[in-house]
């Protein structure tokens, strides 16, 4: 089943009345408002596979990865509706408006899924948030904070968070030729122009793989007025044999649990709740995200891919460039190195937070983004501030 088929719009009149769902009037292409609806049989089949799977041997600490006890408890929780209730998880995923749009790029049609909070203000600033790996839902806590802080009439931004091709409810990249983060950026550029954001300058935000996509938009698209990152490292993740590892992790939900669960435990300041981890893994399993997202994952192996270390992709002078450094990021980079990729005009350093900053410390991330938007739009003097809380 195609991942985008989990996006349903059965009650369009009802959905169109929900807050933050009115697409800007300047949009040139119809954007379909929808909800995530997974059929019960898909959840039943997942539980059957979990219950019949074999677990690995007991281990005594986390030195070599997840412990056998953690895996055992996670498996038990995954199949127990009292601890992991998919109906409630689905409601949480739908706590923000979902949309999908058809984008034609190089002779191929892509279904691009995104979540968004659209403002009714005529002067709203488009802010585009691009996720990393293994991401998809980490921006929801931040978006819920925005919904609590503002109304559609007062929200100063159009906040859009698209799912990259191959991730969650977006269709996958073609499997018969190369596809890179540069292609992703150009698909997103088309989407943003569909929304009318070629005439309204937008700000792009990115972390992990999304930082490469954001960098490409900042360099190639004149409509991108500023860029904020929280990751600036080059490396090939699963890029040598992605089809092999993809086949392994799509064959067994327990393998997927181990492969991705370990990342949430190791790459964060504080391990997220088990319910949160299981939510990500369930969505990845249902949508077959892992093999689709990494199949052609030559993230930075080519000169045409937007590598942070490649001078070709240096942020243009005069374009505000912000960076938030989180202490538990597993691939931290000194500011001096980041400065080689563009003139940093906004800098924040935090003692808490890791790879999934928007999930771990959404209040901190939101504060940084709002301050950066103000800095970028008001042309304030360069800001440098350490957060010691």
TrEMBL record:
Keywords: Hydrolase. Signal peptide: none annotated. It comes from the Eukaryota. Pfam families: EHN (PF06441). The keyword Translocase does not apply. SUPFAM superfamilies: alpha/beta-Hydrolases (SSF53474). InterPro entries: AB_hydrolase_fold, Epoxide_hydro_N, Epoxide_hydrolase. Belongs to the peptidase S33 family. This is Epoxide hydrolase N-terminal domain-containing protein.
């Amino acid at each position: 089943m195609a991942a985008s088929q989990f996006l349903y719009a059965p009650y369009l009149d009802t959905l169109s009345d929900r807050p933050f769902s009115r697409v800007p009037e300047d949009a040139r292409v119809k954007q379909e408002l929808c909800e995530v609806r997974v059929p019960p049989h898909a959840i039943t089949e997942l539980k059957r596979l979990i219950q019949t799977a074999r677990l690995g041997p007991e281990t005594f600490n986390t030195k070599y990865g997840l412990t056998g006890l953690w895996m055992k408890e996670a498996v038990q929780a995954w199949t127990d509706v009292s601890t992991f209730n998919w109906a409630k998880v689905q409601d949480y995923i739908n706590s923000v408006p979902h949309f999908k749009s058809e984008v034609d790029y190089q002779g191929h049609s892509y279904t691009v899924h995104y979540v968004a909070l659209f403002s009714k203000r005529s002067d709203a600033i488009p802010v585009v948030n691009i996720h990393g790996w293994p991401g998809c839902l980490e921006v929801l806590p931040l978006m819920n904070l925005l919904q609590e802080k503002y109304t559609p009439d007062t929200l100063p931004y159009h906040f859009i968070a698209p799912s990259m091709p191959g991730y969650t409810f977006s269709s996958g990249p073609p499997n018969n030729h190369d596809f890179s983060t540069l292609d992703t950026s150009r698909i997103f550029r088309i989407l943003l122009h569909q929304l009318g954001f070629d005439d309204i300058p937008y700000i792009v935000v990115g972390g992990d793989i999304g930082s490469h996509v954001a960098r490409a938009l900042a360099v190639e698209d004149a409509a991108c007025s500023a860029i904020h990152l929280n990751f600036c490292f080059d490396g090939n993740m699963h890029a040598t044999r992605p089809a092999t590892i993809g086949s392994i992790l799509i064959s067994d939900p327990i393998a997927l649990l181990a492969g991705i669960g370990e990342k949430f435990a190791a790459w964060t300041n504080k391990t997220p709740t088990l319910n949160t981890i299981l939510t990500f893994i369930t969505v990845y399993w249902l949508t077959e995200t892992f093999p689709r997202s990494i199949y052609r994952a030559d993230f930075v192996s080519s000169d045409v891919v937007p590598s942070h270390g490649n001078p070709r992709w240096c942020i243009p002078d005069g374009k505000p460039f912000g960076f938030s450094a989180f202490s538990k990021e597993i691939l931290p980079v000194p500011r001096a190195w980041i400065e080689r990729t563009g003139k940093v005009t906004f800098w924040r350093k935090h003692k808490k937070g890791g790879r999934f900053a928007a999930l771990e410390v959404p209040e901190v991330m939101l504060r940084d983004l709002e301050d950066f938007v103000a800095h970028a739009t008001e042309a304030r003097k360069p800001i440098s501030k350490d957060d010691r809380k």
